Hints:
By secondary structure, the protein is an all-alpha fold.
Amino acid sequence: ENAIADNPDDWQSRFNLGKIYAAKGDLNRAIEEMEKAANMNGENGSLYYELGKNQYKAGLFRNALSSFKSCEMLDPKVEGNYFALGLAEKKLSMSTNALNAFIESYRLRPTHSPSFWEAGKLHYQSGNSSEALKTLKMAVELKPDDARYRKSLAVAQFTARDFEGAEINYEKAAELEPANGENYHNLALVQM
């Protein structure tokens, strides 16, 4: 705050102050300072990405979408932006756009398992089982000890009538989350 008192027109100080407020959990003040910084310097993609993340956390999904789009226009290589954009679009029921954002995210970050997982779920929901299986398998390969990924892959495998694959992944999910009775229920269904 002292840096802003000395130079109220310094966008970087406002941006940094916004990050401090965000770290403290004060999203409203974080957003306010980052918006001021963006109004002073509208050419920084990372600034819009950080602003969008805070807007998303605050439940301001349309605002977050706008910020992530601004980041995309200014600097399409800001790490994490396409994934965040996909999450915002998914929240706003823009499934096709979200899927495209998740695909771009894993294209730019080929080891980012959440991008593959989110894309796989959207492929599954749209009825594209071959792409769902491919992307969900990739998510599991990247992060084999994530029960959520295993369950999503098992559902897609079951739907594709790959009962053996579904059984393996439900078993692994049950190992990873032994307290989750849903895993055992699904495993029993596959084994019938």
